[in-house]
Amino acid sequence: MPLNIYIISHPIISILSTQIISSLQTNNKINEPIYSEINFLLIYELLRKWIKVKNIYIKDINKMKEISMFNPKESYILFTNIEKYYNIINHLKILMPKLSLRHIDIDKNNNDYTKIYFNSKNRKYPQNNKIIIVQKILNNDAIIHFINQLINEYKIHINSIKIICIACHKKVLEAINTKYSNLDIYTTKIINT
Predict the structure, then answer these.
(1) Distant-in-sequence, close-in-space partners of 167: CB < 8 Å, separation ≥ 6
(2) Is 99 exposed, middle or buried (0-12, 13-18, 19+ CB in 10 A)?
(3) Are strands 4-7 and 184-187 parallel, antiparallel or unpaired?
(4) Is 67 helix (H, G, I), strand (E, B) or coil?
(5) Cα–Cα distance for residue pair 120/46, rounded to 1 Å
(6) Which of 10, 47, 71, 147 is deepest in the core (most CB within 10 A)?
(7) pLDDT tens across 6-32, in order?
(8) How far apart are CA 32 and CA 21, in angstroms?
(9) Residue 120 DSSP SS3
(10) In angstroms, what is the C-alpha Rg of the chain?
(11) Measured in whole angstroms, how far is the alpha carbon of residue 93 from the centre of its chain?
């Protein structure tokens, strides 16, 4: 089965991603407000297909009232570099009330990021959690090691993991495809280097 890569081509996302990628190539600095906005839009695109909303109908004497709510059994864990992503965390917490945040820094390409702690005494992964990994650019194999830990150590099913990145290198996608071919990746651009 081929890797599920969703290239988001909305005009606003394309403009923002081009600005970020060109700034990374020229001076290796990111405009943080633009970075926050594009991440928010990418998360929105991912959640459109992934969130399940339940409708509850309450019959009153005179009318019918409809209430939409998240599935109470589902929750979300967002893995990202919180230091670089702090701008939209409060906004996401309002939109997704059952969202937990975990700090990781996969960009370093070492094993320091692999200390994952769930709020559990026996390190068992909480059921019905959906994992969202947010990275700037997938440019090394560290993401594969991180996914290995989630799957092997915490017994998380691959369908519960989704990755969001502004751009990803073709070689990294090929490496991910050989190991986790049914992983979903949301991006704006594939870099052929």
Answers:
(1) 17, 21, 136, 137, 138, 187, 188, 189, 190, 191
(2) middle
(3) parallel
(4) strand
(5) 27
(6) 147
(7) 999 889 999 999 988 888 788 777 777
(8) 13
(9) coil
(10) 18
(11) 14
